[in-house]
Amino acid sequence: MSSQTLDAAFIAQQKARLVELRRQLVSVGNAAGSDEQAWQTAAGGEPQDEGDDGERFAQQEVDEAVLKHSEDRVAAVDRALEKIEEGTYGLSDESDEPIPRARLEAVPETIYTVEESEARERNARRGL
């Protein structure tokens, strides 16, 4: 199933989905950054008690995780949009194997087959 077997209407629909997903992810990332700025501004130069610091640090960790996740997904969305322009959308970046249409419908920014994604996640957990 190369991008040639994915019909033009499907690819156009996926492109629209990817553009909207990118907009949403950027918005979420911006909100997480704004939360961090608000915490820093609120803290100002005033002394904080341990409870305030603990809450602020916990929220900072959440915001950083959200921001990292959003940044990673934006990069994947950008790559998927590049693949649409290249005419390779629907083919794995790793093996050039076709990515099933159902997977593309479920995860439009995917650039790997399920098996490749799982292997990459396992290797990442092992630090490889």
TrEMBL record:
<feature type="zinc finger region" description="dksA C4-type">
    <location>
        <begin position="92"/>
        <end position="116"/>
    </location>
</feature>
<feature type="region of interest" description="Disordered">
    <location>
        <begin position="30"/>
        <end position="54"/>
    </location>
</feature>
<protein>
    <submittedName>
        <fullName>TraR/DksA family transcriptional regulator</fullName>
    </submittedName>
</protein>
